[in-house]
Structure prediction request, 460 residues.
Amino acid sequence: MVVMKFGGTSVGSAEAIKRVCEIIKTRVENDPIIVVSAVGGITNKFVSIIENSAKKNKNNVQDILAEIGKRHEEIINGLGLEQNEGLKILLCETLQGIENIADKISQAGDLAKHLHDELMSMGELLSANIVAEYLKSIGLEGKFADSRDVMVTDSQFTKAVPQFEESQKNTQQYLKPLVGKYIPVMQGFIGRDSFGRITTLGRGGSDYTATLIGAMLNADVVEIWSDVDGVLTADPSLVKEAKRIKYMSFQEASELAYFGAKVLHPSTLLPAVERNIPVHVLNSMRQTDGGTVIAGSTPNGKQEGCIVKSIAYKEELVVITVMSTRMLMAHGFLASIFEIFNRYAVPVDLVSTSEVTVSLTINRTDHLENITRELGRFAQVRVEQNKSVVCLVGEQMKSTQGMPGELFSLLKDIDIHLISQGASEINISFVIDDKALPKVVSRLHNHYFSGELDPEIFAV
Ligand code: ADP
Ligand code: ASP
Ligand code: MG
Prediction:
C-alpha cells in the first residue's frame, strides 16, 4: 500500500493534474491512497477572504470569490470535465458556502475561529473531488473519500492535533474497505473535532495527513510529491545551486522540517517514525531518478564526506531574554518561566541559559504582550523581533570535532544572538537578524557544499 500526497503546485492546473494522474497510474498495483492539497494559491485566497471579512470589505470578498471560481472552472474545463454535473454543483455550492461563512465571520469578529478553519477546508474539498473525477474519466477507479469522516483532532483551530486512536478506528471503518478496490482521494490538511466542527492541521498540513494515514493503515511507503526534486541541501528559493539529498535519516529530516524547511510540514515525520514507514519526497513536475528517501536506516556514505546534510531556516522569530539575579543558584526559576509560555500555549523553539539570563525564541506574537508582562513581574525582559534561526543538520556532525568552531569562524562579522546545539548532536542552530539571512545561508552553503560531495548521499 502506498499513500501519495500531492501538494498545491502538483494540482495547480489541469496540466499538472493530468501529470499527477499519470503518476498515480504507475502505482495502481500498489494500492494507492491519494491525499491532495488545495489548488496552489487557493488557501492564501481564503486567508485574504478571512481578513477582508473581518474588516467588512464585502466587495473585496466578492472579487476573491470570483477568482476562486474562475480558477477551478478553468481546471475542470481543462480536464474535459465540463459536463460533469456533480462537479458543477459542488463548485457552485462550495462558493455559496464560502460566501455564507465569510458573512458570518464579518458578524462574529474574534469569536469566529472555528469558521476560519471551516472556510480554509474548502480548497481541499474541491481539489480532492476534481482529482477523483478526473481519475474516473480516464478509466481509473478514483473515489472521493472524505477526510472529515476519518481524521479526528482536538479543537485547537488552525493548529489542531490529530487524535490517532480515534482516527485509526474511522480509517479502519471507512477507508480501509475502499483500498485496493478504489483509488481513494482524500483532502489533506483537515479534520473534525469531537463536536463535529472542521479543524485544520496548520499551514502545509497535507504532508502530515499523508503520514498519519500511512501510519494508520500501516502503508509500505508514503510519497510526498512536490515541486522540487526532493529535500535539497538548502531552500532553492534562497540558494539556486542547492543539491538533492538522496538519503536522510528520520531524525535529520525531522530536525530540518521543524526548523523551517517548508518542503515538509514540521510534524510530517512523527507518524512515520513510530511505524517505521519510509517517506519519499519526489517531484511531480518532472521525472527524476529517486528523489529523497527518508527512513530509519539509510546509507551513511563516506565518513569523511560532507558533515552537513542540509541548512534550514525560520524567519520572523522573536527572541525573549529574561534576566534576574534571583536565578543564581535558585531552583524553580526556569519552571516559572516556562509555565507562562505553557499557559498561553506558545511553543518555545530554542533555549539558551547562562547564570542569570535565559534567552529563548518563539515564532508567534499573538500573546507576546501578556507573556512579557507576566515575565516582567519577576525579571527584566528584553524582546527582539525580526530574527531568524538557521539550523545545520547532519548525522555526521555528531562525530566531528571542531565543527562549531569552524562554523562560527565563518560568521565572524555576523551578530549572533543565541546558539543552541541540539541534545541529539545532529543539529546546531543559531539566531541572527532577518536581514543577514540570505548572506549567511549562501555563505554556509558555499562552504559546506561547493567541494566534492559523496555521490552516494548527494545528487552531484
Ligand atoms: P507543496 O505545495 O507541494 O506542499 P511546498 O511549497 O509546501 O510544496 O514545499 C515545497 C517548497 O519548499 C519548495 O518549492 C522550496 O521552495 C521549499 N523548500 C524549503 N527548504 C527546502 C529544502 N531544503 N528542500 C527542498 N525544498 C525546500
Ligand atoms: N492547502 C494548505 C496550505 O496551503 C495545506 C497544504 O497545502 O498542505 O497550507
Ligand atoms: Mg507543503
